[in-house]
Amino acid sequence: MKPVRTRFAPSPTGYLHIGGARTALFSWAYARRHGGTFVLRIEDTDVARSTPEAVQAILDGMQWLGLEHDEGPFYQMQRMDRYKEVIQQMLAAGHAYYCYTSKEELDALRAEQEAKKEKPRYDGRWRPEADKTLPPPPSDVPPVVRFKNPKDGVVAWDDQVKGRIEFANTELDDLIIARADGTPTYNFCVCVDDWDMGITHVIRGDDHVNNTPRQINILKALGAEVPTYAHLSMILGDDGAKLSKRHGAVSVMQYDDDGFLTEAVINYLARLGWSHGDDEVFSRQQFVEWFDLDHITASAAQFNTEKLLWLNQHYMKQLSPADLAAKVKPRLAARGVDTDAGPSLEQAVALYVDRCNTLNVLADAVEVFYVPVTPHAELLAQHLGDDARPALADFAAGIASVAWEAQAINALIKETVTQNGLKMPKLAMPLRVILTGQTQTPSVDAVICLIGRERVTEALAKYL
User: In this model, does residue 200 exceed pLDDT 80?
Assistant: First the structure.
């Protein structure tokens, strides 16, 4: 068998979205699974819409996901001479021809076909045939180059996801492969690239299914080996509609901004349309070892934000406190929060990680240890009643001499509520509100211990 060579070929007309990231992941994983080569190709021939910023966004997204390429990135705009060379070869071999049909003629043809309720298509008026005499080329119409598509038979392939797919060649008209200004078109460039780069497996979205028969016919005309195709079904949003910006699927890097870990996003993407039994949580290495094309589902995958959040929390909990703190610290620094002027960030994130499902939520939670806390008046009114004040005063007096460890602080809290004839929440809740501005925290003794004796004393004095 030939060595596996896959490619990811995004167009830099926007950022790397979640559907493109899944395509890249599957292409990367298939190459890694078979000890092959993963090629990155930037299809930037849409000059009007392609931007350097979009190229960089794609490269940043690939880097964040850890999908390192073995060759590339190759840029189609840097391969124009090669495309033009192949077009001339196809013209010389009779696989392509010049077409002088004007825009006005094409518009009239389309209107006529639509009036007859026919499928709009080029009618082959400039296609050379053995028994056909072509008119002299008009001098005022710059010609396009069209591919001479076979007229008979079918073009078919065994799609690794969708099964056998066939198109009658009569359904395919003669595709333009070079515009009037000489620039080659997308479907043609893809064929030359896949041929030159020796791509053996094309894994891409099923929005390309209709391009595939045209590309297969061009590849055959070039004498190139046709790759194996696997077309991935679309991804739907939580609501069952096609995934779009309104679902928050703006960019892969947005997941980084929103506090998701790369490991969680990779694990989640892997399960979008592919499965390995009932396994939900697995490492990148396990995914590579397990990945195949046979277990990609042909039906649409549905995005589930709750599952992604659950996975993200799982991976956050797998990190050491030091690694977790290293990821949270720059997020707090971006808000102007100095974590060096406070308790150990490692201890803070370890205390709260079980309650948080993104790095941003974790940063929100632990920020209270490093900034002045001003509880909402409503919370103070609700929890700092006259019945709690004596107990708070007793507790404030007790912390002056108590050993500063969670166990000793816990014993002081229990002693205080017992002496004041209260239940635990009557003291614990006002303590939470005064010290953190929150009503939900981890064990209040651990929170108090981390905040520190001096700051706790000052806060209690302020509200008593």
Answer: yes
Q: For the packed helices 359-366 and 321-333, what is the interaxial angle rounded to 10 degrees? A: 80
Is pTM beyond 0.90 here? yes
User: Could you give the CA distance from residue 301 to residue 240 in angstroms, rounded to a whole number?
Assistant: 9
Per the prediction, the chain carries an average pLDDT of 95
Tokens 């119409």 belong to: 141
Exposure b/e, 388-423, CB count within 10 A at least 16 = b: beebbebbbebbeebeeeeeebbebbeebbeebebe
What number of residues does the chain have?
A: 464
